[in-house]
Design a protein that fits this description.
44% of the residues lie in helices and 15% in strands. By secondary structure, the protein is α/β, with parallel strands linked by helices. It has an 11-stranded mixed sheet, with helices on both faces.
């Protein structure tokens, strides 16, 4: 198994990428190989400055990279030899670079990665649009998709994503017979736009473990395991949850700092507070998989540190090891959708 990594993607690249690769090398030994794609001199300089070893880690050189502020469409069209583009092309067995990978990850531009993935890797039969899935780390975790890649969708696309999300939840997250929910403004079948009403009909008629419509206030309380929606709704939902998590953590800190008595009361719950904070630490959960592609592609957080890169590498490894893509292809045949 070989995991390809965009060494130039993200705010902290390439140093964070090298650190993450070193952690993965120490944790997994020889279970898989890694290839970093990017500026070789910059990679070696960052490794030297950070005191990290590049032994056992391959480098494929390119000095072209996609910047975070590049227009995604133009970047994919014009920067065909960027670290992101080359890494994605390496997932094809007949690529021209002499390196064949099983999974790819990048902390670079989300828009560019979504477009380039569909273009260079290709979508599975039955997937009209690949989607971005995000792990919500509640006591009963939820996989949210789409979380921002596709603002407008159709009902049958939501059905396809429900199958994709179910396979990912079971294969990678270890959820048994995951419950699929449809985000909506009410639990009744007749709620929502015409598209959401049709999506409810399709999901209810499928062989998925459909839990029905889910109101946003029920998301933190385990209403389902996989939650599907259009990317506009999903992105707003995700950012509201992130904002509220930060707000409550800050509010708790302010309460404990408000007086000597409050500070003393913090001591017995300090470990619990640390566990809660860690559960919302993005670096512990890897990245957001782009589901519906012919090979696993992971989108790391733009500000990924070394630990976050390692978590994304671990995620990519699990995707390949579990046979996730083949399972998705098999399940998608049940939707009746064609690939456009």
């Amino acid at each position: 198994m070989r995991i390809i990594i965009d060494a130039m993607g993200g705010d902290n690249a390439p140093a964070a990428v090298i650190e993450g690769a070193n952690i993965a090398k120490a944790e997994y030994g020889g279970k898989f190989e890694m290839t970093l794609v990017g500026d070789e001199s910059a990679i070696k300089k960052a490794a030297s400055e950070g005191g990290f070893s590049l032994d056992g880690i391959d480098i494929y050189h390119t000095d072209v990279k996609i910047e975070m502020d590049d227009d995604p469409m133009n970047a994919v069209r014009k920067k065909k030899e960027s670290s992101m583009a080359i890494g994605l092309k390496m997932l094809s067995p007949d690529n021209k670079y002499g390196v064949v990978g099983d999974a790819f990850l990048s902390a670079g531009s989300t828009g560019a990665l979504h477009l380039a993935s569909s273009h260079f890797v290709g979508r599975l039969m039955g997937v009209r649009r690949a989607c971005l899935a995000t792990y919500l780390p509640f006591p009963n975790p939820i996989l949210l998709l789409d979380s921002g890649a596709n603002p407008t969708v159709t009902a049958d696309q939501l059905l396809s994503w429900a199958y994709l999300g179910s396979v990912y939840a079971e294969s990678v997250l270890g959820m048994k017979n995951p419950r699929v929910g449809l985000i909506n403004n009410g639990t009744e079948e007749c709620k929502g736009t015409e598209m959401y009403i049709e999506a409810h009909r399709l999901l209810a008629a499928s062989d998925l473990n459909f839990a029905g419509n889910v109101e946003s206030r029920e998301i933190p309380f385990g209403a389902c395991d996989v939650l599907v929606c259009d990317g506009f709704t999903g992105n707003i939902t995700l950012k509201l949850i992130e904002g509220m998590a930060s707000f409550f953590m800050k509010s708790l800190k302010d309460i404990y700092k408000s007086s000597t008595v409050a500070s003393l009361s913090y001591l017995p719950v300090r470990s619990k507070f640390g566990t809660l904070k860690k559960s919302f630490d993005a670096s512990e959960h890897g990245g957001a998989p782009i589901l519906g592609l012919k090979a696993p592609v992971i989108k790391g957080h733009g500000n990924s540190n070394g630990r976050a890169v390692f978590s994304a590498i671990r995620q990519a490894y699990t995707c390949v090891e579990s046979g996730m893509t083949a399972k998705m292809s098999e399940n998608l045949q049940k939707t009746g959708n064609g690939n456009d």
